[in-house]
TrEMBL record:
Main localization of the protein described in the UniProt heading: membrane
CC per GO annotation: plasma membrane
Compartments it resides in: Cell membrane
Protein name: ABC transporter transmembrane region
Record's keyword annotation contains Membrane: yes
Membrane topology: Multi-pass membrane protein
Keyword Hydrolase annotated: no
An example molecular function term from Gene Ontology annotations: ATP binding
Assigned keywords, A-Z: Membrane, Transmembrane, Transmembrane helix
Transmembrane segments: 21-41, 61-82, 135-159, 165-183
C-alpha cells in the first residue's frame, strides 16, 4: 500500500472520529504537543541545576528550577490521567457505537445478492471486525507519531545547544526506529488480509449455530 493511500485512509478514519467525538482529536493533539516539555524538564532542568551549583549561584535559583520541573510533571500527570481515564473510554464508546450503527444501516440497505459474492463478503467481514478499532487505532498512532516528532525536534534543539555530535546518534536511532515500525506495519497488514477468509467462515458458522433465525439455513455454495 502506497503512502498516499495510507494517508487518505487515515484521513478518512479521522473524519469519522471528528464526527462522533471532536474533543478526542483536540485532546490528543494537546497530548502530542505536551511532549515539548519533557526534554526541557528532563535535560535542561538538571543541566541548569548542576551549572548553578558549580557556579555557586544563589540557592533560590536552584529551588526555582526544581519547582518548575516539579510543576511541569504534576500538570502532565493530571492531564494524562484525565485524558486516558476519562476522555479515552468515552471516546471509545461513542466512536464504536457510531461506526457500528452506520455499518448496520449500510448492511440493511444492501441487496441480499451482495452477500453471495465472496469478495464482497470478505470486505464486509473485515469492515465489521476492524472499522471501529481501526478508527481508534488511527487516532492513537497519529497521536503517538506527532508526540514522537515533537519530542524529537525539541530534543534535537536541546542537543544542538549542548553537543552537536550527539545529534547524529539521535538521528540514526530515530531513522532505524521508523524503518522497523514501517516494516512491522506492512507485515501486520498482510497478516490481517490473509486471516480474513478464515474469520469469515468462522463467523458464519457461529451465526448459524447460535442464532435462531439462521438455524434452518443450509449453504450449498462457497462463502
Amino acid at each position: 500500500m502506497r503512502f498516499r493511500d495510507v494517508y487518505k485512509n487515515n484521513l478518512f478514519m479521522l473524519k469519522f472520529v471528528w464526527k462522533y467525538y471532536k474533543i478526542y482529536i483536540i485532546t490528543s493533539i494537546l497530548i502530542s504537543f505536551s511532549s515539548i516539555l519533557t526534554p526541557l524538564a528532563d535535560v535542561l532542568g538538571p543541566k541548569y541545576i548542576i551549572d548553578f551549583i558549580s557556579q555557586k549561584k544563589p540557592f533560590t535559583w536552584i529551588v526555582t528550577v526544581v519547582i518548575l520541573i516539579f510543576s511541569i510533571e504534576i500538570l502532565k500527570s493530571i492531564y494524562y490521567s484525565w485524558y486516558y481515564k476519562f476522555i479515552t473510554p468515552r471516546a471509545h464508546n461513542k466512536i464504536k457505537g457510531g461506526i457500528n450503527n452506520l455499518l448496520m444501516q449500510k448492511a440493511a440497505s444492501l441487496d441480499l445478492e451482495c452477500y453471495e459474492n465472496a469478495d464482497f463478503y470478505d470486505k464486509y467481514t473485515r469492515a465489521l471486525k476492524e472499522a471501529d478499532i481501526r478508527a481508534l487505532s488511527v487516532v492513537s498512532s497519529t497521536r503517538d507519531f506527532l508526540l514522537s516528532l515533537v519530542y524529537a525536534l525539541t530534543l534535537f534543539g536541546v542537543i544542538v545547544t549542548l553537543d552537536p555530535i550527539l545529534l547524529l546518534i539521535s538521528v540514526i536511532s530515530m531513522l532505524l526506529s521508523s524503518l522497523f515500525g514501517l516494516i512491522s506495519g506492512k507485515c501486520q497488514f498482510k497478516y490481517e488480509r490473509l486471516l480474513t477468509p478464515f474469520e469469515k467462515h468462522l463467523n458464519y458458522i457461529k451465526r448459524v449455530f447460535y442464532e435462531v433465525q439462521y438455524s434452518k439455513e443450509i449453504r450449498i455454495f462457497p462463502i
